[in-house]
Prior knowledge:
Chain A contains five helices and ten strands; from the N terminus they run βββββαββαααβαββ. By secondary structure, chain A is of the alpha/beta class. Chain A has two domains: 1-65 and 141-199, 3-Layer(aba) Sandwich (Rossmann fold); 75-138, no CATH class.
Amino acid sequence: MTRMLEAHQATFARNGEAVFTAVDLALDAGQALIVLGPNGCGKTTLLRMLAGILRPWQGKVIRHCQPAFLGHLPAFKGDLSCRENLAFQRRFHGGTGLDENRALARVGLAGLGLRPARTLSAGQKRRLGLAGLLVAPRPLWLLDEPYASLDDVGCELVDRLLSDHLSEGGAVALSAHQRKPVIDVDLVRLELAAAEVVS
Amino acid sequence: MIVRSMSALIARDLRLAIRHGGESLMPLIFLFSVIILIPLGVGPGPNLLAAIAPGMIWVAALLASLLALENLFRPDLDDGTLEQWWVGQCPASALVVARLFSHWLITAVPVIVFAPLAAQMLYLPAEALPVLVLSLLIGTPILSLVGGLAAALTLGTNRGSVLLSILVFPLIVPVLIFATGAVSAAADGMSARAHLGLLGALLILAITLVPLATSAALRLNIE
Lengths: 199, 223
């Protein structure tokens, strides 16, 4: 088992106050971690910290491979076409995955390659984000609410992409609210608790 | 890996600039409106115009660079592409260099290309033209670098543009003094080497310190 990601007593602080209680986790290849907890307990913050966008306030986070982070923000340019956005992601992350058209077809956006990304609907934008994971494959996926604004077919698509990624030796950490991933691999559960506010 | 990420970012910025069109034409429109309007204001005497030409062209280049600063990082912050700079292996300071380089290509290079023409319209002696172009080549990257740092620092404030101008102006006064000093010296038939040397020193200082400071400032805004 190759270790992909470790966190030791890691926590993040805003204005000197911890956002969530310290987290210990270890993620190996082929494992999926689901972060659970009520709104505002810091799931997004934790995933952003695991991705390297935020620096841990205490403890440490060790990434053994290149992560990919998919958050609430679309992370592509509305004035560029879907294909141009994917081509940028491939070059930027040094990807050698599917070509742009195949990736778009895989996520159900076939034929929309020339459309400016800003004209996509919310669900289609999420799908374009998923296509970005396919053009530039990275072993560790950090997905913040991957099921948000997707229809039933889209949710099944996410499950399928997750299964494929895990069977290829990747690892996933995700947060989810209404829908939980339906995949063969057992999910490692992480119950995140908001840190107590010292007043 | 680093070079590929940087070139991908530069290529995308240029593509977006071409698609927006106005962004790359604005500096030129700015330059030529200054060059055309000033003689109407101060009178068309060749001696007077030749004396103020270096200053006019440099002020136009400076303001053109400032105009585009507000949008240097903000769109990327809003659509989430900025936070991706910290995911992955390319250090953010290298991406800052790439972003500032494309800002320089878009705002400064058109001005540098057309500066000799503008200088001729203001009766600047022909022997000063190479020094003018050289001073712009050395000096305008400093404007982009210093402006980038200020843009990163004011990213978190809501109406940052006022604060941004206040931050930038004192820092670029030396650039303006040495650059116009160089061109004036060349126009008077003296050596411009001292001025250009000092300008080069400022550029080296900015290029070594600004990318690190800017990426640190950006990170503060993302957190």
